[in-house]
Amino acid sequence: MADDYPAGGVARLADEMRRIIERLAVVRPSAAELQQAAEAAAAFADRLGQLPERKRSWEVSEAGLLPRDFVAFSPVSGRSNAIAPPVVLTVVQDPAGTHIEGEVSFGPAYEGPPGHVHGGLIAAMFDELLGFAQQGPGFTATLTIRYLRPTPLNRLLKLRASVERIDGRKRTIRGSCELDGTVLAEAEGLFIAPRSGDDFLARLGQGG
Fold first, then answer.
1. What CA–CA distance (Å, rounded) separates 200 from 10?
2. Contact, 182 vs 171, CB < 8 A?
3. Per-residue pLDDT tens digits for 142-182
4. Structure pTM?
C-alpha cells in the first residue's frame, strides 16, 4: 500500500475493536456501565474522526480486485476491518491447478439462528471466497448458495474454492464450507471479468 502508515498497527487496532464487538454481543452490563463505556467509545470515535483518511477508494473495494491481493479492509476477510470475522484465505498450487483454501470461525456477533451463523454471513463469505478464486479482477453476476446444514458458531470452518469453467469474460467458480469433514454449505458463482483495456482501477481511484 502506497500510503505511509503502520499496517500492522491498523490490524492490531482492528483486532481489539473486533474483541469489543464480540463482547458487546454477549455481555449484559448495568445502565451505569453502559453509559461509561459509551462515553469512552464516543471519545475514541471523535479522536479517530480527526485523523487523515485513505486517498484511494479501491483499498476497500470488492475482494479479488487485484490478482492475489487479499484486501486489508475487506468487510469479510480484511484483517484491518473490525467488522470482518475475518475469513483467512490462501492460494494453493498443486498438480491439479490453483485453488483457494481458507478457514474462519464466526463468533457470537454473527449469530442468526440460536447458536448458529446468520445465513447472510455465509453468503458473504462465499462471495469473498469465490471472488478470490478467480485469481484476477471480476465482479459477481450471480451467487447460488446451498445450505445443507446449520453452521455453528465458534467452530473452525474449512473453505475451498476453484474455477470450474471459463467462457470468455465469464468465470464459473465453485466452493464449499466444511466442519470436521462434513459439508455444511456449497456455492456456485458466476463472475464477469472487466473488458480488455478497461482500467477500472484508475477510475475507482478517481471516484468515477
1. 27
2. no
3. 999 999 999 999 999 999 999 999 998 899 999 999 999 99
4. 0.81
Whether the Cβ atoms of residue 193 and residue 136 lie closer than 8 Å to each other: yes
Mapping DSSP onto H, E and C, the string for the chain reads: CCCCCCHHHHHHHHHHHHHHHHHHCCCCCCHHHHHHHHHHHHHHHHHHHCCCCCCCHHHHCCCCCCCCCCCCCCCCCCCCCCCCCCCEEEEEEECCEEEEEEEECCCHHHECCCCEECHHHHHHHHHHHHHHHCCCCCEEEEEEEEECCCCECCCCEEEEEEEEEEECCEEEEEEEEEECCEEEEEEEEEEECCCCCCCHHHHHHCCC
Candidates 3.40.50.1700, 3.40.50.20, 1.10.645.10, 3.10.129.10; CATH matching 1-208: 3.10.129.10
25-76 tens-digit pLDDT: 999 999 999 999 999 999 999 998 998 887 665 444 444 444 444 577 888 9
